[in-house]
Fold this protein.
Amino acid sequence: MKKKFFIFFSMSFFLFFFLMGEGGLDRGTIEKLKKREILYGSVKAIQNSIINEGAKSLLLNPSLLNKYDKIFTHSLDVKSVTDQKRSGRCWLFAGLNILRYKAKKKFNMDKFELSQNYLFFWDKLEKANLFLENVIKFRNLKLTDPKMKFILKNPIPDGGQWNFVVELVEKYGVVPLDVMPDTASAKSSSLMNKVLATLLRKDASILRDMAKNGAGVKKLRVKKIDMLGEIYHILVLHLGTPPEKFVFRYKDKKKKVVGPKEYTPREFYKLIGENLRDYYYLYTCPTREYFKLYRIELDRDMADREDMVFGNIPMDLFKEICKKSILGGDPVWFSADVGKDTYSKKGIMDLNIYDYKSVYGVNIQPSRKDRILYRDSIPNHAMVFVGFDEKPFPKWKVENSWGKKVGDNGFFVMSDSWFSEYVYSAVFKKDYLPEKVLKIFKQKPVILPFDDPMMDLIYPRK
């Protein structure tokens, strides 16, 4: 009996340690890797350069720096750019740049800008309310539930999407920049966000404890109003008090003075005369079926609005609609991954701007489809297409929101091949959409879960 137990114990002990070691990085494997890594000649020089100076300057392909001229055969009259500073408001800047372009034409002005800070205030308050409503709605979920972890990870992010722009403008209107200019916290939002996120997580714990002790939704919402009062107070301290009315007076291109006249923010939006409900949101994503309508759970910034819906179309059709829009005099809000193959100093987006293969001897690029599925790429920035060119090679003119010190006075140039790899979505007026695309928006949307890779494409949360 003892002998059998000893044999069984020995075999189990051996099997345990054999399985534990399986697939590990053992000494033999390491020795094989070391023998393969022979630094010689130019490779040694590359190592020295990277160690001493870093890799970025070595990767930069200088032959492309002078490839792009400033000429675009088709370009809208956009003379200046905006600057979001150290905040994640690109989606809002790009959205208001669409309205800014329309307002400048409406008022016949050379320079005009809308207040991003005004809508930033309301976006923060709406996101705080949405967060607390989600806490109430999912109060019975465990904190370790994936949905609760997603909600708690970033309670009040700067980031957003096109549907956020539409809902905010429709509900709160817009005001000129000088009515509610950027504050220090609007330009650099990290400290304000940290304070608000910490307070909201504290509020979440209070609401969940109340629910455990038998409080119903009605009582929880009464408490929520008190909590939002504290959020509102902090926002006022950081961003200022949003105006209910303001006086607008301006001088047009002919030096004619117009006004003064008093408006509410919503009246001023109607005065501009551009209906954002006339715009449709389209993606070009190879991981999902084309010519289908989709909706993603938890993709909103207001508790009483629906999650965003979007159509999915092939890239060639997507580009064709972009060109039609620009030719029709309408700039195009779009999202892309500017973290890939972008040289911000000169404002160049080109697949070959960094020569990874020559430096590393390895092809590091996955396919567009795999890049999405394996979460290597997300549209981390929203900008505006304002032009395109077809000769001597196709390229696109981009209005950015990083100020005039980067790129060509703030404008970027994008190669058509970069567009094919890293542009993911855009917003178009329905006038430019063919019937087969308009039919998409008559479908019942396919509901995708909040943790689908498409959520990262639509609303990345750091």
